[in-house]
Amino acid sequence: GEILLEISWTTFLLEILNFLVLVWLLKRFLYRPVMSLLEKRRLKIQQSLDEAAEQHAQAIELEQQYKTRLEDWGIEKQKMMDALQQEIHSERTKRLEQLKKELASEREKTIVIEQRQQAEVLLQYQHKAHQQGARFASHLLRAIACEEIESHLIDLFIKSVEKLDQEQCEVLLRACKASADAVSVTSAFNLSERQQQRLQKELETLCKQSVKIVYQQDPELVAGLRIVLGASVLGLNLQDELNGFVELTSAIR
């Protein structure tokens, strides 16, 4: 019984020694590496967590920046839309004003054209009326033309010659001296000797020299005189007056 008890204590002590050795071995060759590995793993996990937290913080910051950028972009977009609307409104207003001006200009042109056309039509009617009046006056004057009317026209012509100013007299004087031809006097009716003498006296007074006069008769003058003095033409007759009236209305047209 003592041997068994001794063996049991020995065994017990050996077991304790083995256990201690095992613990020491485990601590030295297993626990420390495992703890080291676990620490490294913990550190790695902590680093990963830190990185994840940092990335999360960056993600939150980026999200905030993105939201801020979206808000800024919304504001910029609204400003651009407002500017575009303003530009469109301004351009539309400008185009409308330009269109109004063009329409007003076209209306003015149309009014001017219509007025011009109306004026041309009126001038045409006036010209026709003047022509008809001239023809009527010509027929009427031819119907009433006589030597008495011609005599009155000769008196008027002589009075008009007596009232010529200095410049007109000098022009006729130069025309008379520059021409060697005889003075041509054409009348609608035969002139009396007294009428010829009056004309002779007036023309010599005008030319300041004796003049040779050649008398002719032309019924187309209706009544009155036509005098050719060198390059100048004088006189007072109904035909020339009627022609001048027609030419005047044509020039006005």
Low-confidence stretches: 1-5
| Total strand segments | 4
Lateral strand order in the biggest sheet: 2-1-3-4
Q: DSSP helix count?
A: 5
Morphology call? rod-shaped
Helix percent band: over 70%
By helix and strand content, what is the structural category? alpha+beta
**How far is it from the N-terminal to the C-terminal residue, by CA?**
170 Å
Strand proportion, as a percent range, falls in: 5-15%
Described by strand count, sense and barrel closure, the largest sheet is:
4 strands, mixed
Rg from alpha-carbon coordinates: 67 Å
Query: Taking all residues together, what is the mean pLDDT?
Result: 81
SSE ordering: HHHEHEEEH
Structure keywords:
single chain, alpha+beta, 4-stranded mixed sheet, 4 strands, rod-shaped
List the helices and strands and how they pair.
Layout: H1 2-144, H2 147-162, H3 166-178, E1 183-187, H4 193-207, E2 213-217, E3 224-229, E4 232-237, H5 238-252
Parallel strand pairs: 1-2
Antiparallel strand pairs: 1-3, 3-4
Helix pairs in contact: 1-5, 2-4
Structural write-up:
With 253 residues, the chain is α+β, with helices and mostly antiparallel strands. 80% of the residues lie in helices and 9% in strands. Strands 2-1-3-4 form a four-stranded mixed β-sheet. The radius of gyration is 67 Å and the shape is rod-shaped. The N and C termini lie far apart (170 Å).
